[in-house]
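Example 3.2
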Amino acid sequence: MVSEQIIKEALNQLQKHTGIPVKVVPLGELSKQGKFVMDSRIRLKAGKEVIEFAVEVKNELRRIHLPHLLELIERRKEEHWLIISQYIPKPLKEELKSLGINYLEASGNCFIRHGSLYLYINDQVVTPSRLPEEGKLWKASGLKFLFVVLQNPEMINAPYRTLAKASGTALGNIGPFIEELKKEGYVKSYQDDILFIENRDQLRNKWVELFSSVLRPKLKMGSFRFMGTDGVIDNWKNVPTTHFLWGGEAAGALMTDYLRPEKLTMYTSYPKTQLMKELRLVPGEGGPIEMMEVFWQEDELKHSGKNLGTVPPLLAYAELATSLDSRNRETADKIKDLYIENDR
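Structure, written as tokens:
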């Protein structure tokens, strides 16, 4: 099985780099309940101390998996958990470390802390065979293009120049993006060379997974707070949205009336300093307001958030679905039901 191969490779690398004896606990020694909630269990000997970790295995760990992992760890607090994965993106490793979640990559990179044991390896190269085989389509510019055709699927047949303008990407990339979609089975051509998006749910899920780790960090323009307050003002809905669109929790609140935002996300193409002046925003690391760059041409997209002053539903869904807050994820599900599934 693939998971067993990943565990074996990862443990071999860990033992090689640390000299610490580690082995898989035989399946027969696990209780029925243990077999149900974990993929495996390993036993590690550090000095005189013997430590057992419940193991969750992923071929490639993505941020969208974090809510499930946190729920699992919270539900089984009595266990010491270790996430083992073939490949973990660098930003996600930092997030796991900040959350105190133990991880081990097949290359041997790891963060493992328990009692007096502390292991942190971050210098092992991920070989090409372990890297996900992804072309330009799954880089930042490709994700911008995909956002447009996922939000408005009929635009897959629009002139390349229109697609380039709507997505803010280079004209020369559009053809290769479409060819890559065809190659991966997401686009098919029918009569009269009309293109149709296939496996739309799968394509959308992959876009959501990659948005938070690949594209979103490039869009952030800073954190802020309203002048004279440290928190989110109660009358945030009355802030004029002339030069920005609400995203994230604020968009979720306006779309579903289910959420009271603790953080306000603003997407804008307006000059940052001008927006700060108009809204009386002051910079503040960790502030409750984050300003993001609009990465699409609003006039070129049809979406149901226009009348609400929000970003397109797909973007609001992506931000909330990957949140570690369960209320945000519930709101994402409501957006999906109300706006995305009905927009077919």
